[in-house]
Amino acid sequence: MFKILVINPGSTSSKIAIYDDDQEILNETVRHSSEEIGRFHDIPSQYEFRKKVIEEFLNKSGYPLSSFSAIIGRGGLLRPISGGIYSVNENMIKDLKSSKYGEHASNLGGLIAYELAKSVDIEAFIADPVVVDEMMDIARISGHPDIERKSIFHALNQKSIAMQLAEKLNKDYKDLNLIIVHMGGGISVGAHKKGRVVDVNNALDGDGPFTPERSGTLPLTGFMKLCYSGEYELTEVKKMLKGKGGLVSYLGTNDAQEVQKMIEAGDKKAETIYKAMAFKISKWIGKMSTVLNFEVDAIALTGGVAYDQIYMDKWIKERVEFIAPVYIFPGGDEERALAMSAYRALKGEQEIKSY
Ligand SMILES: Nc1ncnc2c1ncn2[C@@H]1O[C@H](COP(=O)(O)OP(=O)(O)OP(=O)(O)O)[C@@H](O)[C@H]1O
Ligand SMILES: CCCC(=O)O
């Protein structure tokens, strides 16, 4: 039997799971408020904090590190690579540590997995990182040659939910056109054409709907003026896009459940902003349906925000269901997808790629 530790650092949470072969034994989500995360000036400086969350989980679980066959972390901003499972090696550690390709919480997934695995001499992996790139060339063109659109999104969950949806529809993923929407701390809306994500918003980089903690696409002239106003440092402007944008900037929280409570208590501003997020998500679903020439077999809504049934049904589904039937997968499937990749690799059924 293989015991697998799964580490999934998200933008607003740390999720940790333990699997025995393909069976989940434990799964815990530790949510991080915007104040808690906001005290760190960048992602690398969250390393010790995030590692401690995992160590505390392990202590509570009663399973020593030495009882695991492998550790798999969600990773990370690397150079564009194909999907699959990768062994964490020194090249990868160098790129993750230096944030060479940018900063995202999942960079810490690979780093922490490597460090913990090294201490007990077991394998560390990552799978389907956020840089998986299947974008068609025309979608890369932004409108100015100095800036190329990039594929950075919740590849792990989007792919896994797409497969689940295909199974539900009794079809092969490679025969379907799907729009998959992941709504977590960040939001990505992907056009899956016959098994490839041919277009998706860059969920990390001021592209797409606004999110619990990100601004998404902003009117450019306003943003440019703000950048040159002399009022803000680069680090502050970066945080407006990521970490302190979206719901955090309007309502002071990255927690959609807290926003629900504000609305229930009669807060009209909270209602307007939360509805505007749904409006923007729906617009992006509309955009992606044109990428698929309006030949869309199904739409899937997933990620933490998808637990909010009313939000999904009234504010998103009603707006987009004329495009295609809408299916809801609350939360997502990231820990299972990671564990299954590691399990297949340990059994020798999946090629382990080298970075
Ligand atoms: N039951 C719920 N109802 C509404 N919103 C919820 C619920 N549970 C979680 N959320 C919201 O989902 C968001 C977090 O989603 P998720 O856990 O998928 O994100 P993450 O893993 O931290 O970030 P990312 O997926 O972008 O890496 C938060 O705003 C959280 O408040
Ligand atoms: C870039 C995909 C992950 C996220 O938005 O947090």
TrEMBL record:
<dbReference type="GO" id="GO:0047761">
    <property type="term" value="F:butyrate kinase activity"/>
</dbReference>
<dbReference type="InterPro" id="IPR011245">
    <property type="entry name" value="Butyrate_kin"/>
</dbReference>
<dbReference type="GO" id="GO:0006083">
    <property type="term" value="P:acetate metabolic process"/>
</dbReference>
<keyword id="KW-0963">Cytoplasm</keyword>
<keyword id="KW-0067">ATP-binding</keyword>
<dbReference type="GO" id="GO:0008776">
    <property type="term" value="F:acetate kinase activity"/>
</dbReference>
<keyword id="KW-0547">Nucleotide-binding</keyword>
<dbReference type="GO" id="GO:0005737">
    <property type="term" value="C:cytoplasm"/>
</dbReference>
<dbReference type="InterPro" id="IPR000890">
    <property type="entry name" value="Aliphatic_acid_kin_short-chain"/>
</dbReference>
<dbReference type="Pfam" id="PF00871">
    <property type="entry name" value="Acetate_kinase"/>
</dbReference>
<comment type="similarity">
    <text>Belongs to the acetokinase family.</text>
</comment>
<keyword id="KW-0418">Kinase</keyword>
<dbReference type="InterPro" id="IPR043129">
    <property type="entry name" value="ATPase_NBD"/>
</dbReference>
<dbReference type="InterPro" id="IPR023865">
    <property type="entry name" value="Aliphatic_acid_kinase_CS"/>
</dbReference>
<keyword id="KW-0808">Transferase</keyword>
<protein>
    <recommendedName>
        <fullName>Probable butyrate kinase</fullName>
        <ecNumber>2.7.2.7</ecNumber>
    </recommendedName>
</protein>
<dbReference type="GO" id="GO:0005524">
    <property type="term" value="F:ATP binding"/>
</dbReference>
